[in-house]
Amino acid sequence: MQATILNDIKAPYCPGCGHTVANKNMSKALAELGVDPLDVIVVSDIGCTGLVDPLLNCHTLHGLHGRAAVLAMGICMGLESPGKKVIALQGDGGATIGLQHLLEAARHNLNMTLVVQNNMVYGMTGGQVSGLSSTGFKNPSMPEEAVPAYDICTLAHNAGAAFSARAFIGGDSIDLWKEALDTPGFCLIEVVEMCPAYAMRKVKELHEVSDYGVEISRNDRSPNVLIREEGPSLFESYKAIEKTCEAALDTRLEVIIAGSAGEAIQSAGDLLATAAITAGLSSTKKGDYPITIGTGFSVAEVILSREDIDYTGIESPDVMIIISQDGLDKVKSRIGPHTLIIADSKLGIEDHPLLVTQNFRKIGGAKGAALAAIASYLQDNGLLPLDALLEAAGRHKHGDKMIAIIEKATGLETATASG
Ligand code: SF4
Ligand SMILES: [Mg+2]
User: Fold this and answer.
1) Whose alpha carbon is nearest atom 8 of ligand 1?
2) Model confidence, pTM
3) Which residue among 198, 205, 206 is best mutated to probe the pocket of ligand 1, counting the most ligand atoms within 8 A of its Cβ?
4) Rounded to an integer, what distance in angstroms lies between the CA atom of residue 374 and that of residue 321?
């Protein structure tokens, strides 16, 4: 006898729970269709329906609440072997939470079956009504002016499901299950069930309270079969940065670069980080800017270190490069007594013990001021060879302009003020 997807483990549900019957129906339908349990992938949801995993002999995946349909879609898209049967199980609560996913799954019409076990309550959290609770259902959490339940069979059908059906537990619904499990494309079967703990206890009550009756709908659509194609890994598009020179830096250096949107602050940070790697160091770079990226401040945080960098946050910056008022306003609260400030002279910063100012905006223009300041700083302290910065610039799509800025900045005298 062929193995079924249900094993012999005792179901954990309350006595009389509809999930027990629904699981048996699913198992029976698959067995009658001759499906090998090892060809079945079940995605379960949060809630009492999700207690099913240990009861199954097939592959299982347990997802977040309401996400069973979209996880199953992902599995369909990633399958190398199209012969697998992908089934998502969720309750009425999960279907309510993940309704958009349900509609998307129907719209895309991938080869999968979504089983919605509708007992009209969130059973696991104490019997609260869901979007699939019918108006005739009396429950302390049901509002007096109850609105009709979502008719998910009709919604799925209108979204393009190949097959959708509503079945009430208790009758002989094996043929509906088989059609839902065997029709090419997206199939939904809503099983209206008892939850003796918090809702209906008898099949008769299910019919009495339900807003909708048995329903079967079909769309004559070809299933959407995606063939997985092997593409290049994301990492393959990155060119390894080879060490070509030696940095003098032998500790950890934390640098903040601050300016305005559109002033190539992030590019300058990238260049400094790349130059550090070119010179044999570890480096990280993080960007901080408003969601509206075309206005306001732009800040890059760069860490250079001889050691591996485990923590990428900067609490006490060693160096701050500031080239605009937006940048200054954003980072001034982070300036420490030992922070070296390298600032555009037009900002008028004066009262800091470690201060280097120069008219970087004149040297590099608005888009090259930060890079000019970095080049000038490296030239002064020799922590990284300028060749490393030039090499990093040479890898950039605007490399020619960047190299010109670096050369111009390092050919000028630095006006230094310290208190
Ligand atoms: S709470 Fe309801 S849905 Fe959950 S196991 Fe008990 S009867 Fe079943
Ligand atoms: Mg439920």
Assistant:
1) 17
2) 0.68
3) 198
4) 8
